[in-house]
Amino acid sequence: MTQLTGQPATDDVVHLTVPADGGYLGVLRTATAGLAARLQFALDEIEDLRIAVDEACAMLLAIAARGADLDCRFTVIEDALTVEVTVPTVPGAKLPAESSFAWKVLTALTTSASASAVAGRATISLLTRRTTGW
After folding, report:
1. 117, 112, 39: which is closest to 126 by C-alpha?
2. Do you know which InterPro entries this protein is assigned to (predicted)?
């Protein structure tokens, strides 16, 4: 995961848990847009981030254990928003390779993206910095 220079205030972290089902991704897309708007991201930056979060979640839903929850942690820091999405996985699950189309989408739409799969849980972390001024 990318290290950020500033530390978020306690109230600048939002944690949402939804069932690992595509029907609930709208909740995460809406939260993403709201937090990016709070940081005064441009409209196209907000849409790019919404698409990236949707893509990251789709990657995780494909390997999620049955009946699992999708945990999403948003951290607001100065001119950046980090999104970390985690889900318990089925045994032997693997995330798409970094050379895959899905990863190319994530890296094109965000400042940085990373993933890990440890102890039956997969996590995708996204960092997006605002490119427009206040």
Report:
1. 112
2. HATPase_C_sf
Name which of 107, 109, 111, 113 is nearest 126 in CA terms.
113
User: 12 in helix, strand or coil?
Assistant: helix
Whole-number Å distance between alpha carbons of 105 and 92 = 24
Q: Report pTM.
A: 0.87
Q: Reduced to 3 states, what is the DSSP secondary structure of residue 52?
A: helix
d(CA 11, CA 18): 20
pLDDT one-digit tens code per residue, 68-122: 999 999 999 888 999 999 999 999 889 988 889 989 999 999 999 999 999 899 9
Q: Which two tokens stand for residue 122?
A: 């997969």
Whole-angstrom Cα distance, residue 52 to residue 106?
5
Cβ contact 32:55 at 8 Å? no
Across the beta sheet with 80-88, the strand order is 13-19, 69-77, 80-88, 121-129, 112-118
Domains and CATH numbers, the chain: 13-129 (3.30.565.10)
